[in-house]
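Collaborator request log, item 7. Partner lab (contact: R.S.) asked for a structural prediction of Chromosome partitioning protein ParB to inform their binding assays.
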Amino acid sequence: MRIEDIIPYEKNARHNEKAIPKVAESIRQFGLRGSIVLESKTNPVIVTGHTRVAAMKSLGWSEVPDDHIEYCDGLSKDEIDAFRIVDNKTGEISTWNIALLKAETKRLNLTNGKLDFTKYGFKPKNVKPYGAERERTGDYYNLTICDRTRCIDDGYPLLNGTEYVPTDLLGFNYAKSDTKPEGKSLHFFLDDYQFERIWNNPKEYMPLLRKYEAVLTPDWSLYRDMPLPMQAWNIYRARAIGDYWEREGLTVIPTLSWSDRESFSFCFKGIPKDSTVAVSTVGVKNDTEAWQLFREGMWKAIQEVQPSHILLYGGNIDFDFKHIPVTEYANSVTTRWSGKEKRD
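Returned to partner:
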């Protein structure tokens, strides 16, 4: 049948343009292996096969072999129109087993040039090999940016530390909308949900973080009712991200955090001695128990970490830091509520 006699359906709702060169390549490589379904011999309007017909035209074909033509004999006009839509839609339902797909393309010599699957719309770089569950799990735990080899004997990455003291601190939740990052550093004294994305996509946020003079390590929560392994995990994550940032060239200021005495066995791991460190006093001033725990934890930190400078976010709480220089930064939330000028 001559291609020029085949009529495209004028109300075809499918956008086929991007698929035409892929299908044409398939026909060139493997020949025409599917059928063109038309309404009838007397009304050769395409029901299924718009892309194949367009691909054949692009290849310079003038005819479609008769054994590749089928007709919708026995169907009403409405049934034909419905079949046209259903045939397109059902093709969208199937999904790939990505691991098996990778194994099969590898078996077919994808890498040695005999078959280039990219010509047909595949993106091999996004396909992980069969049995890659371990690799996917590694991605979930960010083992590509910090694994056991990055950790010292106590199980945590050891940060390099810095002597840098920021002029201004800005909450990470304002970083994307901030138009003047010059001279500012980012803090994470926020609810965890506002920066969990840092862990989920650490590489994605590097361009944003590079705009700032320095970054404090994330302050994932150590609530007293959290199981200790969960608290230790949050400490590990903070060190792992900080270690990654340092290797990416950022100035990283370690953040101190703890819950109660039980957390002292791990909460200061990975923080170098004689470095600037940051700590938050938010929520401590008006809570007697919290104040006592802050006092005990701060003394323990001073003994173990021996910081050269302390950044105090949230204001002074009448704690004697002895000889250690302290720079105070106001909590932007409480400052806004009080109507005062904020410092971050």
